[in-house]
Amino acid sequence: MNATAPRATIGLTGLAVMGRNLARNIARHDHTIAVHNRSVEKTTALVEGFGDEGDFVATESLEEFVGAIETPRVVLVMVKAGDPTDAVIDDLVPLLEEGDIVVDCGNAHFTDTIRREQALSEHGLHFVGTGVSGGEVGALEGPSIMVGGSEEAYERLGPILESVAAQVDGEPCCAHVGAGAAGHFVKMVHNGIEYADMQLIAESYDLLRAGVGLEPAAIADVFAGWNDGELESFLIQMTADVLRHTDAETGQPFVDVVADAAEQKGTGRWTVQSALDLGVPITGIAEATFARSLSGHTEQRAAAREMFSTTSEGHRLETDASDDDGFVDDVRAALYASKVVAYAQGFDQIAAGAEEHGWDIDLGDVARIWRDGCIIRARFLGRITEAYAAEPGLTTLLTTPFFAEAVKDGVDAWRRVVAAAARGGIPTPAFSSSLAYFDGLRRERLPAALIQALRDNFGAHTYQRVDRDGVFHTAWAGDLSESEQ
Question: Which string of DSSP letters, residue by residue, matches 220-288?
C-alpha cells in the first residue's frame, strides 16, 4: 500500500458497510478512489475482495491517504456520527490544504454540520454535509444524495456524486439542495418522514391482523396488491416481503419472532425537536417517534396488561364497512391520505428550515431526488415534484388538485378506520394524529381562542381580536376592562 503520486480523483475514509459499498460504487463508475480505514484489515479486505471492480488506491495512514488524492482534494468521511466524525476531521485538517473539500456523508445532526463548516472555513477548507439515503444496497447500486455546502465545492464534487447516484429518466437522484447544513437538514427530515411512513404501515398491518384476523401471508398479498397502485413504494414492497417470510427455526411467520420494541438512532427525534423550534406541526412524524419510544417501555406495558383488559385478537372490528374486503380498502385509503399528510408536513418543515437558515432549498428538487435510491421512494413523489414546479411558493401540498382530490376521496374511509380502531382498542397514533391535523387545518375556527384567553387571564400574555387590529389585555383580577397594549 504505497501511493507514490497523487492520482485518485476522490478519497473515502471509513470502510464499514456503507463506506465500503459507496467506495465500490465510485470505483465502478470509473473514478480512481483512495481508500482508508483506521484498521488496515478493512482496506485490505476491500481491495482483495473487490479490486477488480475499479481503480482503488489502498492506503495505510491518513498522511498517505491525503497524499494520494488530486488537489483540490475531495475527502468523503463515512464514520459514525458524533464524536467519531469530529475525531476524523481533527486528524484530517492539519494534512489538508486551502480549497480542499471534506464531505461528511454520515447521519450528522445539522447543527453539528453548521459548527463544523464554520470551524473548517477558518482553515480555508470547504465542509460539505451530505445526506446519503438508501442503506447498504443503495450505497452500492445508487443512493439518493442530498448535498449541502458551497456551490464552489459542488462544482468539484457534484459530477462524481451525480454519476454514482440512482437515476430516474436519465436524471441523477442527487442535487445541491442548498448552502450550509441544508443537505443534512433535508436528510434529517427525510428520515422523519420515513418514521411516519413505517408507523403508518405498521398500523395498517395491525388493523388487518388484530381487527380482521388476516394472517401475515395474507396481509403480504394485500400489500403487494397495494404496491401495484398509487401506494407503490419501496417500503410497501418491503413490507410484503417481510410478511411473507417464515422463520426457519420455528416455522412461524418471521414477524411473530421479532421483539416488538422498535429502536431508533436519533434522526426522528431530531426532526421533532427541530420542528418544535421552528413552530411547524409535524404530528404524524412526532407520533411515529413516540410510538417507537412506547414500544421500548416493556415494563410499563407489562404492568398495564396486568391491570387492564386487552382487545381480543382475531375478531372483526366494529366498522361501517360491509365486509372484510371493504375494511381492507378503507385501510388502504386511510394509509394513502395519512401518507400525504406526513409528506406535506415534512416539506413544510424543510421550507421553514430553509427560511430560518437562508438555505434557498428547491422543494421540487428535493422530491425529484427522492424518487429513487432512498428509503421513502414512492410513486407519488413525481406528483410532488410537479406540484412545486407548478407553484414554487405552494402553501401546503394538501391543497394541490391531485393530493386534495386523493384526500377528499379517502376521508370517509379514514374516519371509519380511526373510529373502528378507537372502539376496538387498537392504537393508531399516526392515523389518528394525521386525521386530527387535517381536520384542524381545514376548521374555520379552532378552540385556540379559549387557550389564548386563558393565557391572558393567568399570565397577562395578551390577545388579538377578530374585529379590529391591535394587541389587547383584559384586567381579569380587576374590573375586567380591556386595554390596548
Answer: HHHHHHHTTTTT-BHHHHHHHHHHH-B-TTT-SBHHHHS-S-----SHHHHHHHHHHHHT---HHHHHH
pLDDT of residue 311: 55
Give the C-alpha separation, 125 to 117, whole Å.
8
Which of the residues 117, 162, 187, 339 is marked catalytic? 187
- C-alpha grid cell, residue 96: 489538508
Nine cell digits for residue 297: 417501555
Question: Which residue in this structure is represented by grid cell 404524524?
Answer: 284
Q: Is the peptide bond before 72 cis (omega within 30 degrees of 0)?
A: yes
pLDDT at 479: 95
Query: Which tens digit of pLDDT belongs to each residue from 364-383?
Result: 999 999 999 999 988 889 99
Helix, strand and coil content of the chain, in percent to the nearest 5, comes to 55, 10, 35
Spans of the chain, pLDDT less than 50: 1, 3, 312, 314
Radius of gyration (C-alpha) of the chain in whole angstroms: 26
Type of residue numbered 370 = W
CA 431, CA 446: separation in Å to the nearest integer?
Answer: 21
Instruction: Determine the Cα–Cα distance for residues 247 and 467; give it in Å rounded to an integer.
Output: 66
Which of 97, 136, 171, 194 is catalytic? The answer is 194
* Residue 151 falls in the annotated catalytic set: no
Assign 199 to helix, strand or coil: helix
pLDDT of residue 319: 62
Cβ(11)–Cβ(76) under 8 Å? yes
Cβ-count burial of 260 within 10 angstroms (0-12 exposed, 13-18 middle, 19+ buried)? Answer: exposed
pLDDT of residue 310: 67
Residue 253: phi and psi, rounded to 5, are -55, 135
Residue with cell 485538517: 93
Rounded to whole angstroms, the Cα distance separating 355 from 211 reads: 44
Specify whether 48 is catalytic.
Answer: no
Determine the pLDDT at residue 340.
95
- Asked whether the beta carbons of 71 and 100 are under 8 A apart, the reply is yes
